[in-house]
Amino acid sequence: MKQHTVIDSPYGPLTLVADDGVLCGLYMTDQRHRPPEESFGAPDDTPFAEAQEQLTAYFAGELTEFTLQFRLQGTPFQRSVWEQLTRIPYGETRSYGQLADALGNPKASRAVGLANGRNPLGIIVPCHRVIGAGGDLTGYGGGLDRKRRLLDFERGTALF
């Protein structure tokens, strides 16, 4: 049974989704590949207390690594990419090619990018930390402005 809640953040409203009480989605407003609202289940804050607490601490600059239980639903390749995302340290970035290398498939940078774009748990599974080979900001489901702001925030260079 799915449930959802919407919380405020410095990057706009975030919709948290749980399936059988386990976090499985964090979606931004106007996010590319955002599932339809009717797939989020009933509104209910109950399963989200820990996620809300950790997100609040993250946005306050007090948390650099999430320790939430979550369930990622995707293909085996997508899940392997998303697992690599969780290994990118706070405030650092990796290129799509570096992620492909880490997966043992150096020619898969395009596939890594496609999987990255389908990440259902933005911020918690930090797809915003992936950049182009030349260091430029490339695609982000939440928009390049949000990506830039999240990276600046983590690097301590954010201007609010």
Report on the structure:
- The chain is 31% helix and 16% strand.
- With 160 residues, it is of the alpha/beta class.
- A 4-stranded mixed beta sheet has the order 3-2-1-4, with no helix packed on it. A two-stranded parallel ribbon has the order 5-6.
- A hairpin with a 6-residue loop joins strand 1 and strand 2.
- Helix 3 crosses helix 4.
- The chain is globular and about 40 Å long.
Beta-strand level of the residues, as a percent range?
15-25%
Distance separating the two termini: 38 Å
Tell me the helix content.
Answer: 25-40%
Element-level helix/strand string = EEEEHHEHHEH
Count every helix, treating DSSP H or I runs of 4 or more residues as helices: 5
Query: What form results from the Cα inertia axes?
Result: globular
Give the biggest sheet: 4 strands, mixed
- Multimerization state: single chain
Radius of gyration: 15 Å
Mean pLDDT: 92
Outline of the structure:
The protein is α/β, with parallel strands linked by helices and 160 residues long. Helices cover 31% and strands 16% of the residues.
What characteristics describe this protein?
about 160 residues, alpha/beta, 5 helices
Topology overview:
Blueprint: E1 2-7, E2 14-19, E3 22-28, E4 42-43, H1 49-59, H2 76-85, E5 94-95, H3 96-102, H4 109-117, E6 130-131, H5 144-155
Parallel strand pairs: 1-4, 5-6
Antiparallel strand pairs: 1-2, 2-3
Helix pairs in contact: 3-4
